[in-house]
Amino acid sequence: MVGSELNSFSVVSICANSSSKNILAIAKQCKEVLGSKRIKIFYDENFKKLESKEFKIKEEKEIIRRSDLVIAIGGDGTMLNCSRKYGSENVPILGINLGNLGFLADINPDELASALTKILDGKYTIDNRFFIEVFINDEKEGYLALNEAVIHSGAVAQMIDYELFIDKNFVFSQKADGLIVSTNTGSTAYSLSGGGPIIHPELNALCILSMFPHSLSSSPLVISSKSVIEVLLKSAGKRCKLSLDSAKTITIKKEDLITIKQSNKYLKLIHPLDHNFFSAYRNKLGWGIGIVKK
Predict the structure, then answer these.
(1) What is the chain's mean pLDDT, rounded?
(2) 11-123+273-285 topology per CATH
(3) Are 71 and 29 in contact (CB under 8 A)?
(4) Residue 257 · residue 243 · CB < 8 Å
(5) Would you state the pLDDT for residue 20?
(6) Domain ranges of the chain
(7) CA distance linking residue 157 with residue 161, whole number of Å
(8) Closest CA to 24 of 73, 82, 86
(9) What angle do CA 80, 193, 290 make, to 5 degrees?
(10) What is the pTM of this model?
């Protein structure tokens, strides 16, 4: 979806996971650009240590209620945190990348002024990404994740035994160190490092990937995001965990039933007009680097 010059951001919040000098410098650049557009600026509570007349610190609820846009300064960890807190509440997210890869945050600091100005002028695209919800047993309230849900033994070289069901259909039983269920967004995160496929953001799919399975025939499985995944733990040690986006960890045990399904919440990810999926990933993953065109 392409933005419009008729679109306007009257209140923009700036968020980060820390208040280091580097982040502070980027926040001040954002303030200059936003100020030139007469846009009201809020800062999240990570800037509290730097609170002054120029920093209007707001609580999470106030940012959700009043913001037209959230600018996340940092790496993908910061983007994930802001996406769960604010993006899941329908506030669009724009990322300024200070990390190493930054698959979600795609504005580089040296292009900040020009890129941000264009976006504020309505020259941007909106990339809708779905969340997943994870339920344990009969819990009515699920846990939200943008990248992945990981079930793991919690110990090196220790296996768990589980059964996998998709849409109530038995798929297989497996002994492995764990299981990764990733979204299209999370396909370039933990799943990728485990040998999973990269899934284009426009393909609404989930990837199921066993971690070091005790089998020679185990392969990643890509299914529709509309499918409901159930994992029944047949055996699990005392340290067995459920991890969500590497941010929230819950202890799970034998006979627990883990249900994973697409949430009805979506993240509105803002990109500059010149953003290109293949170009971005080619640069970040080093595809074809060093190849000379004749």
Answers:
(1) 91
(2) Rossmann fold (3.40.50)
(3) no
(4) no
(5) 72
(6) 11-123+273-285, 131-265
(7) 13
(8) 73
(9) 105
(10) 0.92
Q: Which residue has the higher pLDDT, 110 or 18?
A: 110
Q: Which residue shows structure tokens 């920093």?
A: 55
**Residue at token pair 């249900």:** 259
Token pair of 73 as six digits: 């300064």
* CA distance linking residue 101 with residue 78, whole number of Å: 13
Q: Are 150 and 179 in contact (CB under 8 A)?
A: yes
Joined tokens for residue 182: 């990733």
CATH number for the domain formed by residue range(s) 131-265: 2.60.200.30
DSSP structural state of residue 17? S
Chain segment 23-62, per-residue pLDDT in tens: 888 999 999 999 999 999 999 998 887 666 678 899 999 9
DSSP annotation string for 199-235:
--TTS-EEEEEEES-S-SS---EEEETTS-EEEEEEE
Q: Is 127 a catalytic residue?
A: no
The helix, strand and coil proportions of the chain, stated in percent and rounded to the nearest 5, come to 25, 35, 40
Spot the catalytic one: 76, 127, 177, 256: 76
Rg of the Cα trace of the chain?
Answer: 21
| Whole-angstrom distance, CA of residue 57 vs CA of residue 191 | 36
